[in-house]
Specification:
The complex is a heterotrimer of chains A (485), B (97) and C (493). Chain A is built from 16 helices and 17 strands. Chain A has 485 residues and is an alpha+beta fold. Chain A has three domains: 289 residues, no CATH class; 115 residues, no CATH class; 61 residues, Arc Repressor Mutant, subunit A (Orthogonal Bundle). In chain A, helix 13 packs across helix 16 and helix 15 packs across helix 16. The model of chain A has no long low-confidence stretch (mean pLDDT 90). By secondary structure, chain B is mainly alpha-helical. The chains are: A alpha+beta (485), B mainly alpha (97), C alpha/beta (493). At the B-C interface, helix 1, helix 2 and strand 2 of B face helix 10, helix 11, helix 12, helix 13 and helix 14 of C.
């Protein structure tokens, strides 16, 4: 892909455990988005003197689900570590996290995700999975870190449960990185652990080096969509340095998505010594085999299994099955819902993948918003009209567009006469008329198939564009054959 | 020994790590006390700890874990009761660059 | 009305005559007005009128027979325990005007039993010290001799209890901070087993070492307060879920211990570091014990030599972490932020608002946790900690208690120990082993040299408060010292 340049990419992905109702170490609500600043805090997540953390039982279960789905080795104890650094969004100026060292353990180590594509099949190894707490949020009154004379800090998010998933540097291109992230978020979504549509629920940091050179860390990539762009930019930047005889410096850079560049993060002149040690407020908790087995039994169907099942049960092509499952769990659920109602898996899959997704992207809807309009019921109606030949496949595309954009029911569109004429009898008569009125064109068409289009055009003219083009074509071809004999 | 020189640098570094200003040149007593204390700690070199697991805390019996049930937080006025500089409910903070 | 000296005396009095409670408040506040200018036990003291109002409400509850176990008790609380209505400063400039929006669990429990909290007491800043001289505001004087320290870091609480300024007080003990001032003021101070009393609301100095505990004028009072403040708290992950003795300590104290009580004296706790007068008092206590059917034997635990450095490595490490949060943004000493970088603002706040000893311990603590030194210091100390604890547990497997002088020296004069940090730390030599091991330890008044109190320390097995308190009561009765009243308030009794 990148002209043979050797690229190594490792990812550090932070995901919020959005399925929880409370924060990781305190009973504040996890539903912090949109709340007035500092209205969702308590002594614990505000870091008030004297407050103590108590771990959320469900957070442990959710983390174990992820560890199992990623085939990781689960540690036998739940141990928390303090990671010390000063920053205004960190109320205690240390983060309660996990670490791989003496007296500490990540919740799981090792594991892998297999990523596949038409041209790609690869195993990406997981290094470790940590549970940790989210810091608060800093905003800048002028909108820019550089020009603001002070900052505004909201601790509503402080203490939300995060999973940090770190990969080995097995990814070799920005595209692979994106595919990996899509697969990972699909798994998390299917597990019910993270809703990737929520703002800030998935954040990515990347480490990238080219040609065995120094590793550059890129932070603050924000959404997974930005990852491919950030990495492409960084590869270009590093390649340019190497080509002009320079050496890439080992450093941390920030992704500026507005300008589309990575910027050196000079703020880190301070040596980073996190002074990890086991958090004395949180004694280790045993993770029993019973608990692990219980969580394993409760695992829902994961993407790989679902794709296989869609292929075998609904006879979908690999491509369609893959897109439906990986693109969004909600989409896959809607697909199954509709198919259970009215069968016709292939048609529904096709409509969803080829039509719905297109309009959703164009209109900047979420998939949920699109599906709220293109309901299972409406989907089934479309399928029914297709089968009844009330609609041509071309018209169905039109219908889907209008259902999604204008939230109109297909029945309404039909009533308004927005229908294609597929009635053979009716169309045969029109074809006869056209043949009578255009004898020269008919003679041409017998010799030159391309001239058939002219005849099709005439039928369209007479039916004001409503004739189904495919049927019209078929009828004309048949008539020509009949006339020939 | 060379350690004394190291300790001076270490005191400076400890100051940077804990964001406490230390002027090793003028504050001779702070450095002298620091060195004395570290030398006091070095007594532990005499102890053989082979095969001994560290004891980080005296864990109580059973363990404490919490149900995922939301409970009332602080009201904003309570949360910011002691905050000296605030702007529309936000804590006013210094520049991050 | 004879001034009640213990909680039981007070309870008896107000059960009979609830109106006496108001007189008790008045008399106590008269003592405070007289004594406080000299002793200075309190940082924040509630106004007399307010306490009288609280007392009235409780009087009515007593009359209605709905009053709690501590109805009428006037409690002084160390200023590192969060109280919702009252400023909580940790005797530091950093928290000079900090008002917690919540109560510590211990406070909630005291209030639930109708105790009246009359004020917050002086301490060494952030509990770092053994003499209360490290308070950022002013030192507390020993009511037995005001040219000398009351001990620390719970000096204010102990002084308030000793000088009749409160019925009882609450302190915290990380390396001896309840027992030291108890020993120096001839009061009784208990550091409970680690995990027995919730730390929720205790402003942390060293989390794996400290516990909240009572300082009282008698062992029975200790038991009553322990019943109220101990017990599982779901807000503290280090708290014990089930302890069969919860709620029964008052009963324990009323029972005589059975059979011969076996007491171990650890040689290393009575050696050269302990000054002669202290040894004299201690030996005379031992004689009394032996002539009263106690079995006393000397054992040796050479590893105790390393208890002090082990303690200080761990304590300073945890302190450097716990005190990282103080940057002036959300609460605490503040420096205007506009136009300044976070690095500058944080450094300024932390360099100005922390006192010298606090800064010293944070610096040392950051060092022992830092990359490259963690293994040699913090990790090593944690291993030595296990060795020490296991040795002590071995001794307690065959003995009922370990006895020692609480402090190696009599209460020093102001300034004597504080110039040299190592001299200050050396005062904790006999008290830190119990914190390292999580064992319960109590200090009882053992005797006097002139007017200077010396304390007897008893250490028990984990969660053996029942036995420990029973033995303590027995010895207390034997020695006949408690409740000890300093000269300066004798006229009020």
């Amino acid at each position: 892909m990148s002209e043979g340049i050797k690229i190594k990419i490792g990812l550090e992905i932070h995901v919020q455990i959005t399925s929880l109702r409370t924060k990781l170490f305190c009973p504040c609500s996890s539903d912090y988005r949109g709340k007035p600043p500092n209205s969702n805090v308590c002594p614990v997540c505000l870091g008030l003197p004297g407050a103590l953390p108590v771990v959320n039982k469900e957070a442990v279960r959710e983390a174990l689900k992820v560890a199992l789905a990623l085939n990781s080795r689960i540690s036998n104890m739940l141990v928390f570590t303090r990671k010390h650094y000063f920053y205004p969004d960190l109320p205690k100026n240390y983060q309660i996290s996990q670490y791989d060292g003496v007296g500490s353990l990540p919740i799981a180590k090792g594991g892998y995700i297999k990523i596949e594509d038409d041209s790609l099949s690869k195993v990406v190894r997981i290094r470790r999975i940590n549970i940790e707490e989210d810091p608060g949020r800093i905003t800048y009154p002028t909108g820019s870190m550089v020009t603001s004379p002070y900052t505004l800090i909201d601790y509503n998010r402080s203490g939300i449960a995060l999973l940090e998933i770190v990969t080995e540097p097995d990814l070799e291109s920005p595209r692979e990185a994106r595919i990996f992230i899509d697969k990972l978020t699909s798994i998390l979504e299917h597990l019910g652990v993270t809703n990737p549509e929520l703002e800030g629920a998935v954040r990515v940091d990347a480490n990238i080096s080219i040609e065995g050179g120094e590793r550059v860390e890129i932070k603050n990539i924000g959404s997974p969509k930005e990852v491919e762009k950030a990495l492409q930019y960084e590869i270009a930047r590093q390649t340019a340095i190497v080509k002009s005889g320079g050496k890439v410096a080992r450093e941390t850079r920030h992704w500026d998505k507005n300008r589309g560049v990575t910027i050196s993060s000079r703020a880190k002149e301070l040596e980073e010594d996190y002074r990890y040690f086991p958090d004395p407020d949180l004694p280790p908790i045993p993770i029993t085999n019973e608990l692990i087995d219980e969580v394993r039994r409760s695992l829902p169907e994961l993407p790989n299994e679902r794709i296989k099942r869609f292929m075998s049960e609904y006879k979908l092509s690999r491509y369609l099955a893959h897109v439906i499952v990986i693109r969004s769990k909600v989409l896959a659920d809607a697909f199954e819902s509709a198919v259970r109602k009215c069968g016709n898996a292939d048609t529904i899959a096709s409509i969803l993948v080829n039509e719905l997704l297109r309009w959703v992207d164009e209109c900047h809807f979420t998939i949920e918003e699109g599906l709220a309009r293109l309901t299972a019921e409406r989907l089934c109606k479309l399928v029914q009209y297709l089968k009844e030949r009330k609609l041509s496949s071309k018209l169905v595309k039109e219908y889907v567009r209008r259902v999604v954009i204008e939230d109109i029911d297909p029945d309404e569109l039909i009533t308004k006469g927005y229908v294609s004429i597929m009635d053979f009898g009716y169309l045969s008569n029109i074809v006869d008329e056209v043949f009578r009125e255009n004898p020269k064109a008919v003679e041409d068409a017998k010799k030159n198939p391309k001239a058939i289009n002219y005849l099709v055009g005439q039928v369209m003219k007479k039916t004001k564009g409503k004739a189904d083009p495919q049927i019209t074509y078929e009828l004309i071809v048949r008539r020509l054959r009949e006339n020939a004999s | 020994m060379g350690e004394k020189m190291d300790l001076k640098e270490w005191l400076r570094r400890a100051g940077r790590l804990s964001l406490i200003k230390v002027d090793v040149e003028s504050e001779e007593k702070i450095l002298a006390d620091f060195i004395k204390i570290i030398e006091f700690f070095n007594q532990l070199r005499e102890v053989n700890v082979e095969g001994v697991e560290p004891l980080f805390m005296n864990p109580a019996s059973g363990y404490v874990i919490r149900d995922d049930e939301p409970r009332n937080c602080l009201k904003v006025e309570e949360a910011l009761l002691n905050t000296k500089e605030k702007v529309s409910g936000y804590v006013k903070g210094p520049k991050t660059l | 009305m004879k001034l009640p000296l213990t909680i039981n005396e007070l309870k008896e009095l107000v059960q009979q005559e609830p109106d006496f409670l108001l007189e008790y408040v008045e008399r106590t506040y008269d003592i405070i007005s007289d004594i406080e200018p000299r002793v200075r036990a309190f940082i924040t003291l509630k106004a007399r009128e307010r306490v009288l109002k609280n007392a009235e409400a409780i009087m009515n509850k007593i009359k209605n027979k709905t009053a709690g176990l501590l109805a009428g008790c006037l409690i002084a609380v160390k200023d590192n325990i969060a109280t919702k209505e009252l400023r909580t400063t940790c005797a530091s400039k950093m928290l000079q005007d900090f008002i917690p929006p919540y109560n510590a669990t211990v406070i909630e429990r005291l209030l639930r039993e109708d105790a009246i909290i009359i004020g917050k007491t002086n301490m060494d800043e952030f509990a770092m010290g053994s003499t209360t001289e490290n308070s950022a505001f002013f030192p507390t004087k020993n009511p037995w001799d005001i040219s000398r320290v009351p001990g620390g870091s719970s000096g204010g609480s102990a002084a308030a209890t000793a000088a009749l300024e409160a019925t009882a007080s609450i302190g915290s003990d990380t390396g001896g901070s309840i027992r030291a001032p108890a020993a120096y003021t001839a009061t009784v101070g208990l550091k409970p087993s680690y995990g027995l009393v919730s730390r929720y609301g205790l402003i942390a100095y060293a989390n794996s070492l400290e516990q909240i505990g009572p300082i009282c004028r008698s062992v029975s009072d200790i038991a009553i307060i322990l019943d109220v403040i101990s017990g599982f708290d779901p807000r503290d992950s280090t708290c014990v879920r089930k302890c069969p003795q919860y709620g029964s300590y008052t009963g324990c104290v009323e029972k005589q211990p059975e059979g011969k009580i076996r007491v171990a004296i650890i040689k290393e706790m009575v050696s050269e570091g302990v000054e002669a007068p202290v040894k004299t008092v201690f030996n005379s206590v031992l004689s009394k014990l032996e002539s009263n059917d106690f079995y006393v034997e000397e054992v040796s635990v050479p590893e105790l030599k390393y208890a002090l450095p082990t303690y200080y490595i761990i304590a300073t490490a945890e302190a450097s972490s716990n005190l990282a949060r103080y940057d002036g943004l959300r609460y605490g000493y503040h420096v205007p932020v506009e136009g300044k970088s976070w690095y500058d603002v944080f450094s300024e706040v932390r360099s100005i608002a922390f006192g010298e000893e606090v800064r010293r311990r944070i610096l040392v603590g950051s060092f022992v946790l830092s990359a490259g030194y963690y293994d040699e210091y913090y990790l090593k100390a944690s291993k030595v900690r296990r060795i020490i604890r296991d040795k002590l547990l071995k001794v307690l497997d065959i003995f009922d208690v370990i006895a020692s002088p609480t402090m190696p020296i009599l209460p020093p004069k102001f300034g004597e120990r504080i110039a040299d940090p190592l001299k200050l730390y050396a005062m904790d030599v006999n008290t830190v082993p119990a914190n390292l091991s999580g064992l319960p330890a109590i200090s009882l008044p053992a005797g006097f040299i002139g007017s200077l109190p010396a304390g007897l320390q008893l250490i028990g097995y984990m969660f053996s408060e029942c036995k420990l308190l029973a033995i303590s009561k027995f010895i207390e009765d034997l020695l006949g010292i408690a409740p000890a009243i300093p000269e300066v308030v004798r006229s009020y009794v």
